[in-house]
C-alpha cells in the first residue's frame, strides 16, 4: 500500500498514477487518509463489474457495421429512407 500526502499528489500526479497501476495509493491530508487512487481495472474488480459498453465497442476484432445499409430500410415500416 502506497501512501502520499495531498501536497505530493498535487506536485506529481503522474507519479501517483504510475504507482496506482501497481497498487492502490492512499492520499493523506494532515496525516489522515482522505482519498484512494487506483487503476480502473482494480476498481472494476473491487466493484464486481464486468466489461462496460465502452469496452465492448472498443474491441478490435469485431466485424464492421454497414451504417448506410442500416439506414436504407426503415426498421419499423420496411420503407426506404429516401
CATH topology: YefM-like fold
Order of helices and strands: EHHEEHHH
Rg calc: 22 Å
How many domains? The number is: 1
CATH architecture: 3-Layer(aba) Sandwich
Q: Kindly, what is the distance between the CA atoms of the first and last residues, rounded to a whole number of angstroms?
A: 61 Å
> At the fourth CATH level, what is the homologous superfamily?
YefM-like domain
Query: Beta-sheet strand percentage?
Result: 15-25%
How many strand units? 3
What composes the largest sheet? Answer: 3 strands, mixed
CATH class: Alpha Beta
Shape: elongated
Query: What ranges have pLDDT less than 50 throughout 5 or more consecutive residues?
Result: none
Q: Could you give a short description of this structure?
A:
By secondary structure, this protein is an alpha+beta fold. The chain has one domain: 3-Layer(aba) Sandwich (YefM-like fold), CATH 3.40.1620.10. The chain has five helices and three strands, in the order βααββααα.
Explain what you see.
- The protein has about 80 residues and is of the alpha+beta class.
- A three-stranded mixed sheet has the order 1-2-3.
- The model has no long low-confidence stretch (mean pLDDT about 85).
- The termini are far apart.
- It is about 45% helix and about 20% strand.
- A hairpin with a 2-residue loop joins strand 2 (about 25-30) and strand 3 (about 30-35).
- It has a single domain, classed as YefM-like domain (YefM-like fold).
- The chain has helices spanning about 5-10, 15-20, 40-45, 55, 65-70; strands spanning about 1-5, 25-30, 30-35.
- The protein is built from five helices and three strands; from the N terminus they run E-H-H-E-E-H-H-H.
Amino acid at each position: 500500500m502506497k501512501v502520499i500526502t495531498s501536497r505530493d499528489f498535487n506536485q506529481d500526479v503522474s507519479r501517483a498514477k504510475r504507482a496506482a497501476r501497481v497498487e492502490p495509493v492512499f492520499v493523506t491530508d494532515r496525516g489522515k487518509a482522505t482519498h484512494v487512487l487506483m487503476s480502473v481495472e482494480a476498481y472494476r474488480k473491487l466493484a464486481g463489474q464486468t466489461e462496460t459498453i465502452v469496452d465492448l465497442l472498443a474491441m478490435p476484432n469485431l466485424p464492421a457495421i454497414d451504417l448506410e445499409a442500416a439506414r436504407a430500410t426503415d426498421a419499423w415500416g420496411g420503407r426506404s429512407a429516401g
